[in-house]
Write a structure and sequence with these properties.
Layout (H helix, E strand, L loop, with lengths): L1 H40 L5 H23 L12 H16 L5 H11 E9 L2 E10 L9 E2 L1
Antiparallel strand pairs: 1-2, 2-3
């Protein structure tokens, strides 16, 4: 799990860094294009200036395409201790649910949240389990989750 988290975080950081580099280069190209246009407006037109402007326009299109093609990086970075935190919370929940003073009530509450459990057998394996639970109306569109 830790290796996955580190890889996901590194990939996100690389993508974010690349987007920043492309944006900075695009801003620089646009500044240069504005300078070339100003020079042309001031009467300094020449074939070399025309070639320079064409090269800048080509690069601007390439950068804009690269930025459009690159998906936005996910704003979430996984915490390195996420797996351990989850393991600890599940352990605490298990301990709490086995407490005889609340076991019956906790079982009823959990049963009220579960709509159905689907077990799918697979040859030579335990199979897949899907649990469908009702969601509390925290969002107007939330009705069920898997």
């Amino acid at each position: 799990m830790r290796a996955f988290q580190e890889e996901a975080n590194a990939t996100r950081r690389t993508a974010t860094q690349r987007q920043g580099e492309l944006r900075r280069e695009l801003e620089g190209i646009e500044r240069k294009m504005a300078g070339v246009l100003k020079a042309i407006e001031d009467g300094m037109y020449s074939p070399a200036l025309k070639e320079r402007m064409h090269g800048l326009e080509v690069r601007r299109v390439e950068l804009a395409s690269a930025l459009t093609a690159q998906p936005e990086a996910a704003p979430i970075e996984l915490h390195p201790n996420l797996a351990e935190l989850y393991r600890r919370k599940v352990g605490e929940l298990e301990t709490a649910l086995n407490d005889e003073s609340i076991k019956a009530e906790a079982s009823e509450i959990l049963r009220s949240l579960v709509d159905k459990v689907v077990l799918t057998p697979e040859a030579g394996a335990c199979g897949a389990t899907q649990c469908w639970a009702r969601m509390q109306p925290c969002c107007p569109t939330a009705t069920a989750t898997q």
